[in-house]
Specification:
Structural class: mainly alpha
Helix content: 55-70%
Order of helices and strands: HHHHHHHHHH
CATH class: Mainly Alpha
Number of domains: 1
Oligomer: single chain
Distance between the termini: 53 Å
CATH superfamily: Hypothetical protein af1432
CATH topology: Hypothetical protein af1432
Number of strands: 0
Length: about 180
């Protein structure tokens, strides 16, 4: 490994600490979490979910996918859902694939890391699907916390009749419990 190239990679990716989750900001949440904070939350939720899932999982792969899932945002920023409606279909995914490929070049396991990231994007492995569940659950937990602690009004996340579907029964059960808790 080339130390200078690895340092460049780390400098670039550590910037996720400064990339704000734009969706929260657009909804009036003051001082919202960064993408790096979100990725940590996703990794933690994925780890907890993994303990209650019947399917055999590779924990190293699971946590790696959780850490990588939003890594391209260090280059592309956090593009919120409302903005995606104005972009051609597939543009964000292609841009993220290209950004990730360039970012990972100095790492010896770059190909494997890109493949694992694609498994998340496509939901093509148990680990990728569990991280997708964790990503959605972490977002909903964060929404609930912003409502509780900052008085944010995030009703659009909880709209009547809106039911998220998760890949794993435990994820679905936690979602329903969160909705029940919120309904109080």
């Amino acid at each position: 490994m080339d130390p200078d190239a690895v340092l460049d990679f780390l400098r670039q990716t550590i910037r996720l600490k400064w990339v704000v989750r734009t969706g929260w900001m657009m909804r009036g949440v003051a001082d919202p979490e960064s993408v790096a904070e979100h990725a940590w939350g996703v990794a933690l939720v994925a780890l907890v979910l993994a303990e209650g899932v019947e399917e055999p999982l590779d924990r190293e792969k699971l946590l790696t996918i959780a850490l990588l899932h939003d890594l391209p945002e260090a280059v592309l920023s956090d593009i919120p859902m409302p903005a995606l409606r104005h972009l051609p279909q597939g543009v964000k995914r292609r841009a993220e694939e290209e950004a990730l490929a360039r970012m990972l070049v100095p790492l010896p396991g770059a190909r494997r890391l890109r493949e694992w990231w694609q498994e998340y994007e496509e939901g093509s492995s148990p680990e990728g699907r569990l991280v997708r569940d964790a990503d959605r659950l972490e977002m909903l937990l964060q929404a609930a916390l912003y409502e509780e602690t900052r008085g944010a009004r995030l009703e659009e996340f909880w709209s009547a009749g809106r039911e998220f579907v998760f890949f794993f029964p435990l994820s679905q059960a936690l979602y329903r419990a969160l909705v029940q808790t919120r309904a109080g």
